[in-house]
Amino acid sequence: xxxxxxxxxxxxxxxxxxxxxxxxxxxxxxxxxxxxxxxxxxxxxxxxxxxxxxxxxxxxxxxxxxxxxxxxxxxxxxxxxxxxxxxxxxxxxxxxxxxxxxxxxxxxxxxxxxxxxxxxxxxxxxxxxxxxxxxxxxxxxxxxxxxxxxxxxxxxxxxxxxxxxxxxxxxxxxxxxxxxxxxxxxxxxxxxxxxxxxxxxxxxxxxxxxxxxxxxxxxxxxxxxxxxxxxxxxxxxxxxxxxxxxxxxxxxxxxxxxxxxxxxxxxxxxxxxxxxxxxxxxxxxxxxxxxxxxxxxxxxxxxxxxxxxxxxxxxxxxxxxxxxxxxxxxxxxxxxxxxxxxxxxxxxxxxxxxxxxxxxxxxxxxxxxxxxxxxxxxxxxxxxxxxxxxxxxxxxxxxxxxxxxxxxxxxxxxxxxxxxxxxxxxxxxxxxxxxxxxxxxxxxxxxxxxxxxxxxxxxxxxxxxxxxxxxxxxxxxxxxxxxxxxxxxxxxxxxxxxxxxxxxxxxxxxxxxxxxxx
Amino acid sequence: xxxxxxxxxxxxxxxxxxxxxxxxxxxxxxxxxxxxxxxxxxxxxxxxxxxxxxxxxxxxxxxxxxxxxxxxxxxxxxxxxxxxxxxxxxxxxxxx
Lengths: 518, 96
Fold this sequence. Notes:
Chain A is α/β, with parallel strands linked by helices. Chain B is an alpha+beta fold.
């Protein structure tokens, strides 16, 4: 069956179940209530003064009823410094556990060592917001029989509430925890800031293990994860590679191309009609995206505009803007550098939020719904403004859905920033390889070669033209760029589906086909 | 013609290409080692440019190493022309 964006979606996939085709960004939500039932979270009991401390991760896993076909979950706040996911899967593999469903909030390059477990049947299904590196390559080539499911950060919470993902065991890394399992990421030698993605796992998993390299006296404050959901506590020497978890402060890019795009994007925001006192703002941590914050900061100071809140993945640059008094509040679901942890711990206007409050579409209002302006990146964008952030030009899975579609659907102004081509590969396509975020959520594309406004928003286009900005039709820009780069030969695929891309409401926006071996 | 000297042009930077040329023994023909980060998408175009330019300059007995990191066509042609002229000792301003 075709979804509303013209992508062919199968009605049923073995190992996944029935699929519902995407019908529009807000179509399903507009009913106001959802037919999907909420799966109850488990009830548990612990006796007074019973100890939760285990001597090793292995012991904790043994006590957690490991079994074939189990679903195990992780959070990715330690980014590329995480070591617990690989350790846990290695322990389960050595116990002979098979047919595991891996439900990590995201997967990074540091998880490449689990590739043999995909090949040997230890892991047979994956739910994740992102897959990269060797794992992404292997998935694209069809290492798993059951397609991986790519979800957004908000969509993941919905999937756990509705039982699409039923977690048997979650392993939660914490940079500080006490003997009862109260835990946080905001202090300790391995501090990583917000632990927002893990909160739903703690609430719903049948078994919850908190792993820390910093056991503090009871109680561990703040209670980012609270003891009433935690079964076991393990103290280890290290939860990860601190140098890769969070270091220093994020620097603004020096790349002239990124700075040029960022400056144009800031001009777009300034003249969009949404740059007003009390505006809410989100930027990514990537090159051009973060650089937009630098130019917006200058414009806010010049025009004496004070914003309401910043949201999302938080960098030290956001913290600086909070401390400058440019914004009143930060909502932090994921922190990108070490300085952010200090702010999160010490500034009460810097608030740690769970992924449900950040972006879950199935509740009475996540904070992404209140965004005025968001700046996002793209691997590819097409003439219908559909954005791909998951598959690369060579066909590999090499990115993350993350909060892209969540924030884009909520914002009054969604700005996509990207160069018009990267290393001879044109970024503006007639049709993107994989749709993650639908074009109807994207208001404007900013490239170094021109600004394209989605024709669905004529008022925005009029505002930008009045300000004298270089507005081009996206079809013209696509042709212009093709003339510079040449037209790349198309990739070749088989009929086998290796990945499905869930939209945030659980409908299927696109599928990824197996790449043909060259 | 055959290269008189070993020569190179270009860099390993993204969106650039590097060409290395050295002479081979007489009547040994062309030996081409071509790689590109965008071989899948632009390999045919890249190979065609190389062969056309080698023919244009009537180059033979040449060992060519080309490593491309997504250079545009004008960049590829300019870098290659420079490398060929340097190898023929025709290019002015070349550091030796």
